[in-house]
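Example S7 (structure tokens).
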């Protein structure tokens, strides 16, 4: 199943806290077992030294997982983060980040995903995350 982009954007708009929406995330692509979101560059998200903060990247990875799980299931349903592990490989300065969440296992009650983040226009990975979600409904 693939979730249409307009439905994915509606899930984003209707189901996340205001501070997550303030990140300005947009859905770029959805597929049978993945979703790609864009995290736009903002000086407000930069930490000391000018790089995008890890907190913003982690929130984007978490959010992308929700959209990927929804796309794999064909619709949004209640779910919650059980675990997220992130590693940061290089700084992002002055560029949007593409957040690619790929479902590695989708069960009735649990979903697992790998998330790769790259600066727009570069193939180099800036961060990775591994996420686990409990499906509640």
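Recovered sequence:
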């Amino acid at each position: 199943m693939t979730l249409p982009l307009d439905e994915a954007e509606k899930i984003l708009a209707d189901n996340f806290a205001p501070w997550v929406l303030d990140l300005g995330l947009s859905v770029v692509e959805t597929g049978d077992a993945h979703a790609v979101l864009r995290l736009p560059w903002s000086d407000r998200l930069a930490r000391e030294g000018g790089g995008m903060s890890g907190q913003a990247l982690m929130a984007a990875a978490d959010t992308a997982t929700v959209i990927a799980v929804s796309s794999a299931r064909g619709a949004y349903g209640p779910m919650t983060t059980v675990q997220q592990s992130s590693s940061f490989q290089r700084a992002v300065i002055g560029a949007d980040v593409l957040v690619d969440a790929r479902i590695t296992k989708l069960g009735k009650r649990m979903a697992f995903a790998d998330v790769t983040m790259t600066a727009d226009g570069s193939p180099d990975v800036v961060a990775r995350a591994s996420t686990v979600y409990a499906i509640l409904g």
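Notes on this example. The radius of gyration is 14 Å.
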